[in-house]
Design brief:
The complex is a heterotetramer, with two copies of chain A (81 residues) and two copies of chain B (147 residues). Chain A has three helices and five strands, in the order βαβααβββ. By secondary structure, chain A is an alpha+beta fold. Chain A has a single domain (2-75), classed as Ubiquitin-like (UB roll), CATH 3.10.20.30. Chain A has a five-stranded mixed beta sheet. Chain B is an alpha+beta fold and 147 residues long. Chain B has helices at 12-22, 55-70, 101-118, 138-144; strands at 2-6, 28-35, 44-51, 75-81, 83-85, 90-98, 121-127, 130-133. In chain B, the strands form two sheets. Chain B has a four-stranded mixed beta sheet with strand order 1-4-6-2, with helices on both faces. In chain B, strand 7 (121-127) and strand 8 form a beta hairpin. In chain B, helix 2 runs antiparallel to helix 3 (101-118) and helix 3 (101-118) packs across helix 4 (138-144). The longest helix of chain B is centred in the C-terminal third of the chain and has 18 residues, at 101-118. The two termini of chain B are 21 Å apart. The chains are: A alpha+beta (81), B alpha+beta (147). Chains in contact: A-B, B-C, C-D. Chain B binds chain C through residues 11-17, 20, 25-35, 37, 90, 99, 101-102, 104-105, 108-109, 112, 143, and chain C through 11-17, 20, 25-35, 37, 90, 99, 101-102, 104-105, 108-109, 112, 143. Strand 2 of chain B pairs antiparallel with strand 2 of chain C, so a sheet runs across the interface.
Chain lengths: 81, 147, 147, 81
């Protein structure tokens, strides 16, 4: 599964994308797995209300299931326009 | 329906004319052009816009299709830039053409609200003091509840 | 603030660019361009626009000043043509520039409502069958109550 | 006092403007005076709800006083934009 990071989340994690093997069932499970890696990840994901998630390039929810998903992207609220 | 996500500058006037000429049956065309504002007191060196290639085009196409479905529109144009933009530069443009003016106004207003808060773009302000990610505004989120 | 009442055609794109370039501190520019629509099924030879010289300029200036007072705007542009216009021709244009997009949208929408029903212009449709004055629409009058 | 007519009212009256000497106190009085002239005027002014009036280039009401007014314009509802 490809995981992408954008904006300040990308800067804090230190990479724009990475490939992970995971059995996580939901986005929230995946976040817990990533946060368990080290303090950097834990800090980046500390406040989920400040983050958004897209599954296969579609905005989604942290409770959404990951079955069949190939690309997960995490990022702060968008500021386009 | 035309969606463009690009690093290059665009000529809003030329785009407006081209779009208007192609909008069959339209009685009115509304455009919105967004401009990089300097910070209060000046000092902005650049506004850097990051985006999510692939999802950006998908999201903008979805918003435009939703607008076409919701209002009787002749056509929709969305252009959004990414990369480093100088103060005064044009960031993006939306244009809507419709038989009736209210539809064109509402659809452009709607597209702007979605572009602001639901399209995967992130702005960073570069000044002499450093770089700051622009925070999302509660007002922009509230604006979405109008639709 | 610029108000023009003229028989000559104008280049909406060029006007938009010129207006945007001159609008200090604006974060966004909204434009509306009105186009002569052909009749359903075709057959419109010309749309003839009569106006009340003197009062027209006065009324448009008043509306623009009211918009500048009501919203935080950087600038307002109004161009309105009179005389015989062919189908597809541009009749008029409104542009508003503002630090915040919602102000620019609302002010342009407001100006259009006033232009439609309170500026002394009258439209006449010329077809092979003759000439008909366009009747004012109840909807346009109702739109004014929004403000 | 100058009286101006626009659009279909101008066509029905037959002139775009005329100069009248009048002692009419209100717009409504002036309309009554004009309507008394002949059937053409009477027909043109028959339905005031279909007409608008401007005094010295300012939209006004049919009950407005004419004191000091130099230019009165009658016309149908506007159809600009």
């Amino acid at each position: 599964m490809d995981i992408l990071y954008f904006a300040w989340l990308r800067e804090r994690i230190g990479v724009p994308r990475e490939r992970v093997e995971t059995g996580a069932e939901t986005v929230r499970d995946l976040v817990a797995e990533l946060s368990a890696r080290d303090e950097g990840y834990a800090a980046a994901f500390a406040d989920l209300s400040a983050l958004r998630v897209a599954l296969d390039q579609e905005l989604s929810e942290f409770d959404a299931p990951l079955a069949g998903v190939r690309e997960v992207a995490f990022f702060p609220p968008m500021t386009g326009g | 329906m035309e969606i463009r996500v690009q690093a290059e500058a665009f000529d809003a006037g030329a785009e407006l004319n081209r779009f208007s000429a192609g909008a069959e049956g339209a009685g009115g065309v509304v455009s919105f052009t967004g401009v990089v504002r300097d910070l209060p007191g000046g000092g902005l060196r650049a506004m850097e816009i990051e985006h999510y290639p692939g999802m950006t085009e998908k999201a903008l196409t979805d918003f435009a299709a939703q607008a076409m479905e919701r209002w009787a529109l002749s056509d929709v144009l969305v252009i959004h830039r990414f990369g480093a933009l100088a103060p005064g530069a044009q960031i993006m443009m939306v244009a809507t053409a419709a038989p009736h003016r209210r539809a064109a106004f509402e659809a452009a207003d709607y597209l702007m609200d979605y572009l602001k808060s639901r399209a995967p773009f992130w702005k960073k302000e570069i000044t002499a003091a450093g770089a700051d990610w622009v925070a999302a505004k509660a007002q922009d989120e509230a604006d979405l509840d109008r639709w």
